[in-house]
Amino acid sequence: xxxxxxxxxxxxxxxxxxxxxxxxxxxxxxxxxxxxxxxxxxxxxxxxxxxxxxxxxxxxxxxxxxxxxxxxxxxxxxxxxxxxxxxxxxxxxxxxxxxxxxxxxxxxxxxxxxxxxxxxxxxxxxxxxxxxxxxxxxxxxxxxxxxxxxxxxxxxxxxxxxxxxxxxxxxxxxxxxxxxxxxxxxxxxxxxxxxxxxxxxxxxxxxxxxxxxxxxxxxxxxxxxxxxxxxxxxxxxxxxxxxxxxxxxxxxxxxxxxxxxx
Length: 262
Hints:
The structure is a single chain. By secondary structure, the protein is an alpha+beta fold. The chain has helices spanning about 20-25, 30-35, 80-95, 105-110, 145-150, 160-175, 240-260, and strands at about 5-10, 10-15, 55-60, 60-65, 70-75, 95-105, 120-130, 185-195, 200-210, 215-225, 230-235. It has seven helices and eleven strands.
């Protein structure tokens, strides 16, 4: 049950645990904002041919990411590595650590034939939330129930959109010498779409990548794994409401796989 309202650096959060802010400090409440920043990054990236889990470290914790069904991992070619570094820089500047990215395996096969597509049809991004101005890899000694209660709070994306635009332009300039190579336009926040092991939030946005403007949909599963706040973001081109239903189904299924893998 939502009980009260707090403002955390311009992000409006309705939360149910009034003692959480007092006990853990305002800095730690930024986790909700930082995770959701990634929802505005529908970038054209991919991941390596492998079905084994991706193992990453966050602080002193090890996390296993199962390969999403039908997807392959980014890495191994110059173009893929460039895209990964671009996305890694953007995420770090926004307060997230990039763990991995995947695209559908058909796209991966085309990349390995040296045929990089103009854009990706489907992709997945996994991130962990960094803490404070120093962007430290901090874990959170809270229950999954408390974490989910915080994540279901209402959010105002207006300030987040401005931050995204600035960091995106900077990264575009550094990695591609063109600040407008990818631009994000109008955003539709779909809010919380469901709660399982994760809190699942949705978004629809206009994306211009110098080839065309597309309407992109995304569903993010936000979950606490080994005390690490994690976001797993599923993206594809928006067609109709069934697009969101499929993304939500994929997000819930992956959330269960991620939970039991760890």
